[in-house]
Write a structure and sequence with these properties.
By secondary structure, this protein is α/β, with parallel strands linked by helices. The chain has nine helices and eight strands. Helix 1 (13-25) runs parallel beside helix 2 (66-74) and helix 1 crosses helix 6.
């Protein structure tokens, strides 16, 4: 059985991608959660050559990086990418765009599932990222008929945008109706609900993440369990 190494569910957007994909497709795996902080790891960490998450262990084989994990799984399991060639090409492009782009969204709207934040400002670069996401969602839903981005089934491209759904919820980002409806569909998935509930139950607070969020806006609601441990 696979072992998937992930970070805190409240913060780790990169970990959510393969976790959501494997959960939605019913691919069995064991989860190993690593708490962010001084003891999190480094390049010497056996879980990954980079000391980062996510990282998939398949026996003695180690696969790191969320996109590499998706491609590795696609070689072994149906449903990761669409069978239709046009939809598959589009899905790969959209997933790669999320993997390498939207830097302003990442910087200003760091993922934290369990809080609600009123941003201090909406700079043009953030508006541009949000507009592009809305455009991309509309393109996929229109071109391939929905309800998911590349057709009627959840796949890797949807998993790559699951963290965006939590960011929309946390920061109240406004999207046009087709894109907003898609975000709500993602949030309603059983796997996403499980991740969210686990994120709320985590007692850990990671100082760098918390400081990054505080620099972007004001926390108006904190739905997380009471903190029992803060990490530097």
């Amino acid at each position: 059985m696979y072992t998937l190494h992930i970070g805190n569910k409240n913060y780790s957007s990169w970990s959510l991608r393969p976790w959501a994909l494997m959960s939605a497709l019913g691919i069995p795996f064991q989860e190993r959660l690593h708490v962010f902080g001084p003891a999190f790891g480094g390049k010497a960490d056996a879980r990954s050559p980079t000391g980062k998450v996510p990282c998939l262990h398949d026996g003695a084989r180690i696969v790191w990086d969320s996109l590499a994990i998706a491609e590795y799984l696609a070689e072994r399991h149906a449903g990761v990418w669409p069978t239709d060639a046009d939809a598959r090409a589009w899905a790969r492009c959209a997933a790669a765009e999320m993997h390498s782009g939207f830097q302003t969204l990442r910087d200003i709207c760091s993922m934290s599932c369990g809080i609600r934040v009123k941003l201090d400002s909406h700079p043009d670069a953030l508006k541009k990222d949000v507009a592009r996401i809305a455009e991309l969602f509309n393109d996929g839903l229109t071109r391939f008929g929905g309800p998911f981005l590349a057709g009627d089934a959840f796949g890797a491209v949807d998993a790559f945008y699951c963290p965006v759904a939590f960011r929309v919820q946390t920061y109240g980002l406004e999207l046009p109706k087709p894109a907003a409806d898609y975000v709500n569909r993602l949030l309603a998935l059983p796997s996403m609900k499980r991740w969210y509930e686990a994120a709320l139950a985590e007692p850990y607070r990671d100082s760098p993440h918390e400081e990054e969020i505080a620099a972007s806006g004001r926390v108006t609601q904190d739905l997380r369990a009471a903190s029992s441990k803060a990490t530097a």
